[in-house]
Amino acid sequence: MKKSKGREALLVARGIGAVLLGLCAAWSVAYLVSAALRGAAWGWSEYAIQLITFVASFCLFAAAAFLLGRSIGAKQTNWFTVLSDAMNRIAQGDFSVSIPVEHGRGVEPMHAVAQSLNQMTQSLKELENMRQQFISDVSHEIQSPLTSITGFAKALQDEGLSAEQRGRYLEIIQAESKRLSRLADGLLRLTSLESKDTALELSRCELEAELRSIILSCEPQWAGKGIEISADLSPVLVTADRTMLAQVWGNLLHNAIKFTPQGGCICVSLRQEGEWAVVGVSDNGIGIGADSLPFVFDRFFKADKSRSAATGGNGLGLSIVQKIVSLHGGTVEAQSGGAGKGATFVVRLPVAPRD
């Protein structure tokens, strides 16, 4: 707002300055004409001198105003042409448009419009890059299991295969089909969460009981790997969608189990810090490298692609976790000391208001 007012004041000042210069020039010429007429050999009446002086000064002032207006009009017309061409290119999907705004400082409103247009173009370019990357990632994730299914389906046509080989190939096809199904389910769930129509079924819930229930439901997985689970849980109430939060705790716990070795340990904690409920899920598993930490919540990101492929991960789980937590007005953070030093995921949610 201040910049806009400053530009308007500058335009007014320039206009006043131009008028004053035109008046000074007209007055100077009028004075010279008047002096020349009075010093002429033939005598001019005072009335004739004043009339000629007035006409000359008026014509000079009008000519100056015309030239100044034409100059400004030409600049504006040129800028309108540049802006129109830029918008046409953007409409056709060309987001590489960039208007050199430094050349438009003489026409302040056009300069401001050019800056805004450049910012919009940059945002559209980033959005287009994200869209193309998303399509590329989805295509890659789908292509990998489809290649396996096609290859092993063709191999099954070999009549010389033993029953053992045939059974193993069928197991691989089944596993890859489930992987495709999980990918489709994850994409649909993430799309649904990002929709503006997403409605939360909020209710007051005890996080302590919710977390204990999730830990018990995952017992076959962590007990099967000989993992020791410890739970340090304090009673905390939150207002949340129980079903959605169950996805968060289940996803974080399954990830911890997946990347914790045989005989490892996992700790689930819950405490209240001021107006926040803080949930931590820690493990002593493979950890996350410092270069991967900023990207763990990105779609399809896999810190260890070989392990993720072996365990059936598709890189969507943590994106779903982040979106659900965000919908509840909270935050989620990943922490790790590096490869081989385990990882901790910390979720913060607003506590329920007191009755």
Describe this structure in words.
A five-stranded mixed sheet has the order 2-4-5-7-6. The chain has a two-stranded antiparallel ribbon with strand order 1-3. Among the domains are: 2-92; 203-350, Heat Shock Protein 90 (2-Layer Sandwich), CATH 3.30.565.10. The protein has helices at residues 2-38, 46-91, 108-155, 163-194, 207-217, 219-224, 242-258, 305-311, 317-327, and strands at 203-206, 228-233, 237-240, 265-273, 276-283, 331-336, 343-350. By secondary structure, the protein is an alpha+beta fold. It is built from nine helices and seven strands, in the order ααααβααββαββααββ. It is extended.
How many H/I helical runs? Answer: 9
Question: What proportion strand?
Answer: 5-15%
**How many whole angstroms does the radius of gyration measure?**
37 Å
Query: How far is the first residue's CA from the last residue's CA?
Result: 43 Å
Let me know the CATH homologous superfamily of the domain at 203-350: Histidine kinase-like ATPase, C-terminal domain
Helix content: 55-70%
What is the mean predicted local confidence, pLDDT?
75
Largest sheet: 5 strands, mixed
Supply the key terms.
single chain; 355 residues; alpha+beta; Heat Shock Protein 90; five-stranded mixed beta sheet; two-stranded antiparallel ribbon; 9 helices; 7 strands; extended; disordered N terminus
